[in-house]
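User: For my dataset I need records formatted as: sequence, then structure tokens, nothing else. Please produce one.
Assistant:
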Amino acid sequence: MKGPHNRNPNSSGSSLSGATRRSAIGLLLGAPLLGACASMQQSLGQFSSPFGGAEPPAGPQQEPTAVGSGQVRVGLILPLSAAGNAGVAAQSMKSAAEMALAEFQNPNIQLLIKDDSGSPQGANAAAQQAVSEGAEIILGPLFAASVPAVAQVARARGISVIAFSTDSSVAGRGVYLLSFLPESDVNRIVDYAAGTGKRSFAALVPDNAYGNVVEAAFKQAAGRRGRVIAFEKYSGDRATPARAVAQMLGSADALMIADDGDSVVATADALTAAGSNLRNIQMLGTGLWDNPRVFASQSLQGGLYAAPDPSGFRAFSGRYRTRFGQEPVRTATLAYDAVALMAALARTQGPNRFAPETLTNPSGFAGIDGLFRFRSDGTNERGLAVMKVTTGGGVPVAGSPKSFGA
């Protein structure tokens, strides 16, 4: 699976120096807690995106694994035996979780790793097993459909869940999402564009669940910072909605296309065929733009999109390669950050370590992919960079925030 390119930082796995460990893990609430992604929803792909197709078939469950010898038990539920990309991602996330434990100095946690086989039934059984073994909080699962099955068990025991799904509809009381949500991308890029003087916004988005999420966030953000002068959705046919938007672009300052790499390029081509000169308008996108097809498109050169600062993932990837001899999947940082957060909270927060008021601290935490915080409704907010499309890849034009505003 593709990760950010170019730089390969020197790293040494568990032999990191104390200073490097502190920058990678952090120590305290109120100051960012964990350490320093091109997004994401794309890298979640078919195995964890709630907007994709059917889940892969479940395979046989593996024997449960416990990692670490700390007193605080934490459940980690992943589709380890699921077929296809799901199983590949789960194994990489498991490795990243173990790496987080190894890089955290003397963590007082024990990971109870459970295989849900990629099904809600498996997730429910895995959650029951984890809580019966004393888990105080559950990390995972990966699939949106499995989150309610885990939440049911966790709520009955009064413990929280930190899941990896990108579907905000499964978040809720005591169920938090540590994932890359489209809403964060949209808010960041619209706010940045407005800060450069853009006030009139147009958009073309896919007519699917992802597009619906983007639509709600875009109309709210653009309405707050300016006005929406054109908004269209497309499914198979892009020509008709592209013509409708093209007719309005003369009055627009910025145009958002929110889709993955191939579809973004196809939509830009449809706009060009409809008579639009995309060089005359500021193009905006989400983290799905972090894609070689986008970087190779002449129509999208100079376009801006929101994504985590790639330097964090580059450093993480270097340490992961050193330890495991292979590349991590893009979502591996979610498991790393989740485990490192649990270790830090167990060290610093005493009996309230996993309480809702601790998890929803408004100052948030800093992980591999930058600043993040959980909202009380279970969704999250991330501090994202703004990247510019060039033929050599994404180039940062605005860094990730160092703290959350009021």
